[in-house]
Specification:
The chain has 400 residues and is α/β, with parallel strands linked by helices. It has 2 domains: 3-30 and 273-397, Aspartate Aminotransferase, domain 1 (Alpha-Beta Complex), CATH 3.90.1150.10; 32-269, Type I PLP-dependent aspartate aminotransferase-like (Major domain) (Aspartate Aminotransferase, domain 2), CATH 3.40.640. Helix content is 42%, strand content 13%. It has 15 helices and 10 strands. The protein has helices spanning 3-10, 32-38, 40-43, 55-75, 88-102, 118-129, 147-153, 176-186, 205-208, 257-293, 326-333, 344-349, 354-358, 363-367, 380-397; strands spanning 82-85, 109-113, 133-137, 158-162, 189-193, 212-216, 227-231, 302-306, 316-322, 369-373. Strands 1-7-6-5-4-2-3 form a 7-stranded mixed sheet, sandwiched between helices. It has a 3-stranded antiparallel sheet with strand order 8-9-10. Helix 2 runs antiparallel to helix 10 (257-293) and helix 11 (326-333) packs across helix 15 (380-397). It is globular. The chain binds pyridoxal-5'-phosphate. Pyridoxal-5'-phosphate binds next to helix 5.
Length: 400
């Protein structure tokens, strides 16, 4: 289906030219300074960084080395412990499958959480089909994991725990440090999918005791198609991509200097304005919630905030509009504001969000939920437009 066709199907051709973009959890715009930093590596300094034997290759290799040092320093590891991947999906697959395959002789049990991204749940289910035992822990209604439940789930043959830092749909932050502590005491490897947290909230993954950390460039104003798996020193993984032996043999395939340089630049910039951005977006997000909460709702319609504001990403708001038809609500809203009903992946599948279902929302409630992802460019006017759009959409979509 081409873009025109998709637009026609969605009735989007009547869209005003510019609608507020409030879907930053799905992806962020690539920062212009990141685009500039990447620019020379497409057509000028284009050589393969594996070819250190000639000048152009060496120049590309130096750029990759510098970028690797930047990412490593931000994560508190030596550069050799950063494996560049195509994104967090690949990083999660390498972490989960690579670790379990490597430790086959030590145990066959792994633990994860019901609200994880599918890029964690699916590799875990794949391993389950291959003979591992999988425990998928529930969460509390606010989306947080009970540490007691995790403790109770750990078994003598547990080899891996995978618990994300921040949820992509609700923004809920898990207690990464406490999970790491539990795992370390028992000699269990801990993988943390930090795709939504990195560059948005303060983190000290290696200081906290995380063993494997997944990152994704396009979630913090970098390019799509690049991410990293950060691996604690001494931890071995079975490679999942075999070939030329790049990335210390862990991930074969030619490296992309422009994407790698872009990832490092984006991370540097995101860490620079993280605190100020977080404070500004938290205030805007609370203004958004206040505005929505103040709307005069049609009879039988109720707004419910999902997640845990005290432990949440500053830029994310997830709201269930109980009492309306989700498809109609989103049908009205998409003409006025770019937001999501859940993760980009669950939106594509058309299935109700497994995350909201895990928080106790019904299928109908999950479908009638709105994820607002604010970002660097979001203004108070965008928030006002979003509130007005929801007000108007509710008037049309409400029913009982
Ligand atoms: C928490 C989380 N993990 C993994 C991914 C997948 O990341 P990527 O698009 O880099 O493969 C996403 C993207 O939505 C995410 O939000």
């Amino acid at each position: 289906m081409d873009i025109n066709c998709i637009e026609l199907c969605c009735g989007l051709t009547a869209l005003p030219q510019i609608v507020p973009y409030l879907d930053h959890n799905a992806t962020t715009p690539c920062d212009p300074a990141v685009v500039d930093a990447m620019a020379p590596y497409w057509s000028e300094a284009f050589a393969n960084p594996s070819q250190r034997g000639h000048r152009p290759g060496l120049a590309a290799a130096v750029a990759v080395d510098q970028a690797r040092q930047t990412v490593a320093a931000a994560c508190g590891v030596a550069p050799s412990r950063v494996i560049f991947t195509s994104g967090a999906t690949e990083a999660n697959n390498l972490a989960i499958k690579g670790l379990c395959e490597q430790r086959l002789g030590q145990g066959r049990h792994l633990v994860t959480v019901a609200t994880e991204h599918v890029a964690v749940l699916e590799p875990c289910r794949y391993l389950e089909r291959s003979g591992f035992t999988l425990t998928v822990l529930p969460v509390r209604p606010d989306g947080r994991l009970e540490l007691e439940a995790l403790t109770a789930a750990l078994q003598p043959d547990t080899v891996l725990v995978s618990v994300m830092a921040a949820n992509n749909e609700t923004g809920v932050l898990q207690d990464v440090e406490a999970v790491a502590d539990l795992c370390r005491q028992r000699g269990i490897a801990y993988h943390c999918d930090a795709a939504q947290a990195c560059g948005h909230v303060p983190m000290d993954p290696m200081g906290w005791g995380v063993d494997l950390l997944s990152l994704s460039g396009h979630k913090f104003y970098g390019p799509k198609g690049i991410g990293a798996l950060v691996v604690r020193p001494g931890l071995a993984l079975a490679p999942q991509l075999h070939g030329g032996g790049q990335e210390g043999g862990y991930r074969s395939g030619s490296l992309s200097p422009p994407l790698i340089v872009g990832l490092a630049k984006a991370l540097t910039l995101a860490l620079q304005d993280q605190q100020e951005r977080g404070q500004r977006l938290r205030a805007l997000r609370e203004g958004l919630w206040h505005g929505l909460n103040g709307l005069k709702l049609p009879p039988g319609v109720e707004l419910l905030r999902n997640g845990c504001p005290a432990h949440g990403l500053p830029h994310t708001l997830n709201v269930t509009v109980r009492g309306v038809d989700g498809a109609r609500l989103h049908g009205q809203l998409r003409r006025r504001v770019a937001l999501s009903s859940g993760s980009s992946c669950s939106s594509a599948s058309g299935k109700p969000s497994h995350v909201l279902r895990a928080l106790g929302r019904s299928s109908a409630e999950s479908a009638a939920s709105l994820r607002f992802g604010l970002g660097r460019g979001t203004t108070a006017a965008d928030v006002d437009q979003a509130v007005a759009a929801v007000r108007d959409a509710l008037a049309l979509a409400a029913y009982r």
